Predict the 3D structure of the following.
Amino acid sequence: MSKMAAVMESGEDAFKQLFKFYKRRKPPPDFSDVIDFSGKVCTGKVDPIQLSPRAVSDAAASSVGLRPVRDWRAFGLQGFPGFIFISNPFQRGSQPFWIRQCLKTYPQKPNVCNLDMHMSPCDTKDIWERSVHSLSSPSAPRRHEKSLLERLRWVTLGYHYNWDTKLYSADNYTPFPADLQSLSQQITLGCGFSDFRPQAGILNYYRSDSSLGIHVDESELDHSRPLLSFCFGQSAVFLLGGKQRQDPPTAMFMHSGDVMVMSGQSRLLYHAVPRIVPSPPGLLTSELQNPPSPPNQQNQNTPTEKSSVLEPVSERDWTVCLGYIQSSRINVTVRQVLGAEQNFPHS
Ligand SMILES: O=C(O)CCC(=O)C(=O)O
Ligand SMILES: [Mn+2]
């Protein structure tokens, strides 16, 4: 009997068992059952899937840093209808922009972050600038206090998720970032969803010892719409379970640039992140080359081209981002909260 099968034999629910199995430090777990979509997938559980290449023009894909849809490597998992895993559909050199947005732009007001819960707005006004010095000089004298960026755990966008009540509300809303909205729309169009509306986002920032507990995302009022998940930086083991806590989950790696879509019957499945793992050797260095910015990039689009949301990332910003993701992972989930004609109930 494999170690994993032995673990599954005891009484505790199967998800909890496997979560603990992958979270364990000593001895480290055997990762051989974890599906890795970045390599050859031949586990018998995975099916390549055809997306909708005609739904997104190459220019529209490129405007948000994505390859043409026909080149996306997309997979489904047997037994999980509606689950789509797209193995890094980003163009080489476009992830630095998204990583910079996650670290420098999205934590800014009016978005909300964990530091706002116990700090005054003026202290959390400039998380990036106040962290830059210590992060860009790792050999600086030992720091006693962690920078604000290192203390960042989550950011919410659009309809701000309330972690206590587990609710969204009409009066806790700020405009959803237009660039992330556009990225989300190209992904959903490519996957065959015609009218996805990104209305809420949650960014999670993981250190190498972080995990995310077993949960279902059910606070959105319309569960018929897909939920998107983007990963940047270090890799993770992601567990996808069933509709019941007892259902044994499937483990897969998520690497930088990977995108997951939970839709249809897979929209409300239990899932968790038991462990952050180092990204495979060479993967970050090959994917995350920050291309030098051409002069006047803003004006380079011809009238027929879709104008790019990507902006060049300065060398200074990229140095800070690289330092951060050396040991961290960023995950962005994008959700539609309300159906087409739906409103929040009156309280
Ligand atoms: O970090 C991840 O991959 C999962 C995040 C997640 O499940 C969530 O934010 O609800
Ligand atoms: Mn979730």
In short: The pocket of 2-oxoglutaric acid (ligand 1) is lined by residues 202, 204, 212, 217, 229, 236, 238, 254, 271, 273, 331, 333 (CB under 6 Å). The CA atoms of residues 11 and 17 lie 9 Å apart. The domain at 31-291+304-335 is CATH 2.60.120.590 (Jelly Rolls).
